[in-house]
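Hey, I'm writing a tutorial for new members on how sequence and structure tokens pair up, and I'd like a real worked example in the thread rather than a made-up one. If someone can provide the structure for the chain below, I'll link this post from the tutorial.
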Amino acid sequence: MYQWDFSFLWSYRWLFFQGLGVTVGFTVAIVVLGLVAGLVSALANLSRFGLPRWLALSYIEVFRCTPVLVQLVWFYYALPVLSGIEISAVSASILALSLYGGSFYSEIIRGGIVSIDPGQNEAAAALGMTPGQAMRRIILPQALKRMVPALMNQSIIQFKNTSLVSVLAVPDLLYQGQVAAHDSYRPLEVYSAVAVAYFVLLFPLTAIVRQGEKKLATSD
């Protein structure tokens, strides 16, 4: 029978802390950049002009309909060949995960905007507001309340997606766990500890999202 022993993990604590810092930093970067990409593409998707709509839809469908791991590998290995520009594993990971997340954020934002009563736009026009002013001052603030739970859920998924960057040797939490597992020859304990670390970080966030969804349902 396998004898579990977690005592050795303490000697790798700084390795795990470094990996955790990279994971959290990656999450912040890809969530912020993904939200920007999502907002821009959502507004383009709602444009009355054909070209912005076509570009936004093409971006959204390409990134939603291909595996994120394939995107990571493509951005790291294929993009430099096509563009002639060298790209680091960190840059490729941030770019791929941000655009991937942005495609989902885009649909969440678009859904939130179209859920607002069209009469709001008519009222804004009657007050002399331009479409851009109406969107910024009236539509988006109301839509944001409805979007927050879904945006947070997608951000949690983004957090978990950061574990994929280990395939490009980015030293995130999972990659550092792999280093510790190979060094200690105790993969069961190491990967169990990594799983617990992800759970401890993500469970409070999921609880917050559930509470937000309940409050939103009550207010509606």
